[in-house]
Design brief:
Number of domains: 4
CATH architecture of the largest domain: 3-Layer(aba) Sandwich
Distance between the termini: 29 Å
Strand content: 5-15%
Number of helices: 28
Shape: globular
Strand order of the largest sheet: 2-3-1-9-8-10
CATH superfamily of the largest domain: HUPs
Largest sheet: 6 strands, antiparallel
Helix content: 40-55%
CATH class of the largest domain: Alpha Beta
C-alpha cells in the first residue's frame, strides 16, 4: 500500500520535479517507509511513497524500472495472486525481488493492458514506456484504491490523493455541479474541482507521447440493469456452498503479508464472516473493535466479544469516550483533501489509528451490504414494491409523522426519522425513491443553500444523477438497486472513507468480499437469495451460520454512528456559529445563501432537528476544506 504521483508536461523547460517532490511529501502517511521521485524523460516524472507490506526489503522500492530498462512503474495496492501469475506467465523471467510490483510490471511488459484481466487485488498504478513515451494508468475494478487526474492544455497530473495534485501550480476552480451533489450525498461522486476527475473503477487510461489522454473500460459487473435473474438457474444449497467456498478463498488470498496482520471485528455479519475465514489459517488471529465507554446506544462491542470468544481470536477492544472521539475530529478534517462528510469516518479514523499500533494490515467486511442487500433501505424498497398495508398507512399518515421529533441520536427518534423517509419514498418512482434514500439532504434544500448555481452546473449535476438513476430501470428486481449501490455508494462513500481513514494512519485495509470472483457470483444470484421479507444478506448468513453465534444473525442493522448532533450543540457550536458558518464569512464567500444557512442552524438547535445535523456537517466539512485549500493564503 502506497501513494503515487506523476506528471506528463508538454512544457519541458518547467521544473515540475520541485512540485512532484512536494506532492510525494503530502502522501507520506500512505507511504511512511520510503519516498522517492525520478525524472524519466524531459516530459515525465514519477514519485512514490511506500508502505512496505510484501518484500519489505529495498528490492521492492519504487519507482521500479524493468531489467530491460524500457519500463518504469509506480504502484499503489496489492496483487494477491502475484505468485500464481509469476508461475503461469513469467516462469522464464528472473525476478530480483519477491514483490508483487515486479510481477505486475513484467506482466504488463508481456501482455500490455490485457494483464488487467488476470489481476486479483486492488490497485492504482502507472507504467511509463520509455521507448513510446506513453504512460499507462489503471484502477481496480471497484474503486478500492483512488486515482485523481488533472488535465489542461500544458500538463496532465495524476496522484493517489487530491492534496498531492494541489502542490502543482494550476488555477483551482470550484465545480458547482459536484458541490450540489455533495450537499445531497455528503460525498463527491466526481471531483470538487474543475479539470480534475477520478479514474473510474474498472478503467484504464493512456497518456500518449503528444499529451493526448484516452480512457477505456476493461471490466464491467456481469449484470444488466432490468434483468430478472431466475432462481431456478442455480439451486439455493448449491449456491450457498459455492459462495462459502469463494469467500473463504478470497479471505485466504488476502492473508499474504510480510508484516503483522489482523481483522476489524465490529460484531456485524460481514466482519465476523471475514474473521471466521481468516482464523482457519491464522489461529492466533488479531481482531480489533471500537467501543464507546459512555454511550451504550452506539456501542456494539458485546457482539464483537461474542464472535471473538467463539473463534478464539486474540481480540482487542479499543474503548474510547465520546470526548476522545471528539478530539480526533480535526485530525480527520485536516487529512481529507476533498469535502467528505460521512461522519462515521471519525470512528473509522480512530479504529485505524489504534489498530495500526498492533498491525500494519487489517481485513474488513466492506462490500457485504451492497452485494447481498444488507441495508435497511433494501428492506424498505422490497416492502415499497409490494405495496403492503403498512405502506399505505405510512403514505396517508405522512403529515402526522412530520410533526414527531426525529434524529439519528436515539432509538425512538431514529425510528420516526426512518418512517418519515419511508413514507416520502412511497410517493416516488423506483429510481427517484432510490435517490431519495441515498441522499441525506433533499435536492431542493441543497440547491437552496447555493447562491450562484450556474445553469450549466445544474445540467451537469442532473446528468451525473441520471447516470446512476438509469441503473434503476423499474423493470428488473432489487439487483438493480444493489448494482447502483456498488457504483455510487460503495465507490463514492464506503471505499473512499476506508481508504482515507486507514491511509491517514498508514494502515492497509483489505476487502475480501470485493474479490472479483465473489462479486461476479453475487450478481448471478436471484434477489430472493439475498433478501426475503425482513431477512437481509440471507445466503451470506446461511453460508456461515454454523460458524458464528446465532445472535450475530438476528441483531438489528446498526451503522458506525457517532454522536454528531450532541457535539454540534456543545463542543462544535462555537466553531459553527462564530467561524465556519458565521454570517459575515458566508456573505463574503458568496457561495451559500445566508437565509438558508440561518434557517438550517435554527432547525439544528431546535427540539426537532431531523437530519439537519447531517446537512450542517456537510457545510462544516466543506467550509473547513475551503479555508484550508481554496483561500488565497491556503
Amino acid at each position: 500500500m502506497c501513494g503515487i504521483a506523476g506528471y506528463f508536461s508538454k512544457i519541458t523547460e518547467h521544473q515540475y520535479d520541485i512540485f512532484l517532490s512536494d506532492a510525494i511529501s503530502t502522501l507520506s502517511k500512505r507511504g511512511p517507509d520510503t519516498q522517492k521521485i525520478v525524472t524519466l524523460s524531459p516530459h515525465v516524472g514519477f514519485g512514490h511513497a511506500r508502505l512496505s507490506i510484501i518484500d519489505v526489503s529495498s528490492a521492492g522500492n519504487q519507482p521500479m524500472r524493468s531489467e530491460c530498462g524500457n519500463f518504469t512503474i509506480i504502484f499503489n495496492g496489492e496483487i494477491f495472486n502475484f505468485r500464481e501469475l509469476h508461475q503461469i506467465f513469467l516462469g522464464d523471467i528472473h525476478l530480483s525481488s519477491g514483490s508483487d510490483t515486479e510481477v505486475l510490471l513484467n506482466l504488463y511488459i508481456r501482455m500490455g493492458k490485457e494483464c488487467l484481466q488476470h489481476l486479483n487485488g486492488f490497485f492504482a498504478f502507472a507504467i511509463f514506456d520509455h521507448q513510446k513515451g506513453e504512460i499507462f494508468l489503471a484502477r481496480d475494478r471497484y474503486g478500492i484504491k483512488p486515482l485523481h487526474i488533472y488535465r489542461d492544455e500544458n500538463i496532465i497530473l495524476f496522484a493517489s490523493e487530491l492534496k498531492a495534485l494541489l502542490k502543482f501550480p494550476f488555477k483551482k476552480e470550484l465545480d458547482y455541479s459536484s458541490l450540489s451533489l455533495y450537499l445531497q450525498l455528503n460525498y463527491v461522486p466526481g471531483s470538487i474541482l474543475k479539470k480534475i476527475q477520478k479514474l473510474k473503477p474498472g478503467h484504464w487510461a493512456l497518456i500518449d507521447n503528444a499529451g493526448g489522454l484516452t480512457f477505456e473500460r476493461y471490466y464491467s459487473i456481469p449484470f444488466t440493469p432490468g434483468t430478472r435473474i431466475n432462481g431456478a438457474a442455480l439451486d439455493y444449497q448449491v449456491a450457498k456452498n459455492q459462495l462459502r467456498q469463494l469467500v473463504e478463498e478470497a479471505v485466504q488470498r488476502r492473508l499474504v503479508s510480510d508484516v503483522p496482520l489482523g481483522t476489524f471485528l465490529s460484531g456485524g455479519v460481514d466482519s465476523s464472516i471475514v474473521s471466521a475465514c481468516a482464523v482457519k489459517h491464522l489461529p492466533q488471529l488479531n481482531t480489533f473493535s471500537l467501543g464507546y465507554k459512555d454511550d451504550p446506544y452506539f456501542d456494539e462491542t458485546s457482539y464483537a466479544n461474542l464472535v471473538a470468544d467463539r473463534l478464539k481470536t486474540n481480540h482487542t477492544v479499543f474503548s474510547v469516550t465520546t470526548d476522545e472521539m471528539f478530539d480526533n475530529i480535526f485530525s480527520v478534517l485536516d487529512y481529507i483533501d476533498e469535502p467528505f462528510a460521512d461522519s462515521s469516518a471519525i470512528a473509522v479514523f480512530l479504529l485505524s489509528q489504534k489498530t495500526r499500533q498492533k498491525v500494519t494490515v487489517s481485513l474488513s467486511g466492506d462490500g457485504g451490504d451492497e452485494l447481498f442487500a444488507g441495508y435497511n433501505k433494501h428492506k424498505a424498497e422490497l416492502k415499497a414494491r409490494k405495496a403492503s398495508a403498512i405502506s399505505l398507512l405510512l403514505r396517508t399518515g405522512l403529515p402526522i409523522l412530520k410533526l414527531l421529533p426525529k434524529s439519528r441520536q436515539g432509538k425512538g427518534t431514529n425510528f420516526f426519522r426512518q418512517m418519515e423517509r419511508y413514507g416520502e419514498g412511497l410517493k416516488l418512482s423506483e429510481s427517484e425513491r432510490y435517490w431519495r434514500w441515498c441522499i441525506l439532504t433533499g435536492e431542493k434544500t441543497a440547491l437552496g443553500l447555493l447562491k450562484n448555481m450556474p445553469v450549466i452546473s445544474l445540467k451537469e449535476a442532473e446528468s451525473t444523477r441520471q447516470y446512476f438513476l438509469n441503473m434503476i430501470t423499474g423493470q428488473g428486481d432489487l439487483n438493480d438497486v444493489l448494482f447502483a449501490d456498488v457504483n455510487l455508494v460503495l465507490a463514492g462513500d464506503m471505499l473512499t472513507k476506508v481508504d482515507l481513514m486507514s491511509m491517514a494512519n498508514s494502515l492497509e485495509v483489505r476487502v475480501p468480499l470485493l474479490d472479483v470472483n465473489v462479486v461476479d457470483f453475487a450478481f448471478s444470484l436471484p434477489v430472493e437469495y439475498k433478501i426475503s421479507g425482513n431477512v437481509t444478506k440471507r445466503i451470506l448468513k446461511d453460508a456461515f451460520r454454523n460458524e458464528l453465534p446465532g445472535q450475530i444473525f438476528e441483531r438489528p442493522k446498526h451503522g458506525f454512528e457517532v454522536p454528531l448532533l450532541r457535539w454540534m450543540k456543545t463542543g462544535l457550536r462555537n466553531l459553527i456559529e462564530n467561524d465556519l458558518l458565521e454570517r459575515n464569512f458566508i456573505e463574503q464567500q458568496n457561495i451559500f445563501n445566508w437565509p438558508s444557512v440561518e434557517f438550517l442552524l435554527k432547525k439544528l438547535f431546535s427540539r426537532n432537528p431531523g437530519d439537519a445535523h447531517a446537512t450542517v456537517w456537510s457545510l462544516v466539512v466543506f467550509q473547513y476544506w475551503y479555508k484550508k485549500h481554496m483561500l488565497p493564503n491556503a
